[in-house]
Amino acid sequence: MKAINFVLNILLALVVLCAGAFVLAPRFGLVSPFEIKIVRSGSMAPAIPTGSVVFIQPASSYSVGDVITFGPDTPTSVPTSHRIVSIRTENGTTHYTTKGDENNAADQSETPANKVIGRVIFSLPSIGYILAFSKTRLGFISMILIPSLLIICYELIGIVREAQSMRRRKRAEHAIRLLAKESHLLHFDIETPIRWRDQMAI
């Protein structure tokens, strides 16, 4: 049972940390080696299905076969993550032709290098749904505040139980010492007259 509780606590802590980092890092201007984006379409399935989270890292150059994330990232516009199928350089500017693995044709417009956010290093399926929910007010309360309070309460309960256990042990040790002392006195009271009688008889 303790092992199960330990594993559940670890998983809960990881979810809280990931969701907290995703929500709070941009607000406090924290710098990360990766950018995290949520995939909202199935154009890269099955490699990157809808609802995945992609971890993006900028690079100085990209190659054919790389999955890159590009385009504006605003409240009304979501960047795209597609695979590079060809590269063209014109007047010193590199342009990438991209295509979603699930799409039948390449994207209609090329992407200039200065519009690329970075290369997708790896992705986690379905986590995007959780992180997207965590960015809402209800999600923040239910996924960050409540689990955090549950962890704190669980630890406090453990501390209280340990304190109670220590008090019980101390009471038991005290009772044993009293019992041992009384047993010693009783032994002395019984044995002393017998020894005195034996000495008088001699």
Automatic annotation (TrEMBL):
Q: What is its main location?
A: membrane
Q: Which SUPFAM superfamilies match?
A: LexA/Signal peptidase
Q: What's its EC?
A: 3.4.21.89
Q: Where are the transmembrane segments?
A: 6-25, 140-160
Single Gene Ontology BP term? signal peptide processing
Instruction: State the source organism's domain of life.
Output: Bacteria
- Keywords, A to Z? Membrane, Transmembrane, Transmembrane helix
- Family annotation (InterPro entries): LexA/Signal_pep-like_sf, Peptidase_S26, Peptidase_S26B
User: Where in the cell?
Assistant: Membrane
Q: Which GO terms describe its cellular component?
A: membrane
GO MF, any single term: signal peptidase activity
NCBIfam families named in the record: sigpep_I_arch (TIGR02228)
PANTHER family tied to this protein = SIGNAL PEPTIDASE COMPLEX CATALYTIC SUBUNIT SEC11 (PTHR10806)
Q: Tell me what this protein is called.
A: Signal peptidase I
Q: Which organism is it from?
A: Candidatus Kaiserbacteria bacterium CG08_land_8_20_14_0_20_50_21
Q: What is the lineage of its organism?
A: Bacteria, Candidatus Kaiseribacteriota
